[in-house]
Amino acid sequence: MSALFWRENPSRRSAISSSYPPVPMRALQLVSDRRIEARDIAPPPPPGVGEVTLRIRAVALNHIDVWGWRGMAFAKRKLPLTIGAEASGTVTALGDGVTGLNVGDTVAIYGARTCGHCRACREGRDNLCENVEGVHGFHLDGFAREFANMTARLLVRAPDGVDATAAALAPVTFGTVEHMLFDNARLEPGETILVHAGGSGIGTAAIQVAKSIGCTVITTVGSADKVAKAAALGADHVINYREDRFEGMVRRLTGKKGVDVVFEHVGADTWAGSMLSMKKGGRLVTCGSTSGVSAPMNLMQLFQQQLRIIGSFGCRIDNLRGAMARMASGAVHPVIDTVAGLDGIDAALARLESRDVFGKIVLTLD
Ligand SMILES: [Zn+2]
After folding, report:
1. Whole-prediction pTM
2. pLDDT tens across 189-222, in order?
3. Cα of 245 to ligand 1 centre, how many Å?
4. CATH number for the domain harbouring residue 106
5. Residues contacting 93, CB < 8 A, separation 6+
6. Ligand 1 center from residue 163 Cα (angstroms)
7. Residue 56's beta-bridge partner residues?
8. For residue 125, how far is its CA from the centre of ligand 1 (angstroms)?
């Protein structure tokens, strides 16, 4: 049965728009490497203690979905697996003991299942949980399904002015950026930052967040049309890395000093240039390696220049609040490349893998 069938079946549509899980409900499941199918699965039971039932509204795609789709031999997981790591939902039912959420609330969903009681979780640093069960959509079933039961502790209510699409970008896209820039790189107003791949989802977020606190932003893009788009987001300087060596341009733009902070997620292709782009005492924060996981490093440069390299993965739950507060204030906005239905998943992943995007690809279940 194809996703298209559901879209064209009126009785099915009415079921989807109700607050009660249809039986069965639809989900996008990875069944083997590079093969995702729309399937019928059982709806969730009534929510347990501390849980709520969510009607999933929007699922934003990230590079982790591409990794998962290609197949990760070392990842512990069982197929079929429901995909989708970053999403928002509407609360449709509350389990016993849930406080602070109401039926009808739009929520952003934290992307990993953490224990809530280890030292890291108690300190609010869930992305360092000692007993983490895994990342949704990658190790555990994800959110590309009509309904899901989730632990209320891992949900953050969207404030007024933040719709379901924007809330879907809080857990990974904007949350990761908040965590990288502020918790890890300690970015300060007035500093200069190099944001790699300014047309990527997190690139479009990082440009806006850094500008919102008064930083000078230099960004790289891979095509002429993205130069204008990145500048329109507020970037002060946009480098087309296919035409110019970015590290040379960065040194020229900073009077040979280099930047305070490099925002890395490209990896192998950019690592050496990123190291050369920092000023003495500069900080490099990285959350990805889309071009490859290994890069040589000049250790003499590392210690003589007193550089700091910080790995970052996921975010704290509170970063979701920070991200949505910044959206609600109007300081940042989601940059959407494509909105598609669940049946658009194959084209969406191919587009993401090709890097032919500017901003986010979002699958909507509305
Ligand atoms: Zn924990």
Report:
1. 0.92
2. 999 999 999 999 999 999 999 999 999 999 999 9
3. 43
4. 3.90.180.10
5. 19, 46, 47, 52, 53, 103
6. 29
7. 89
8. 8
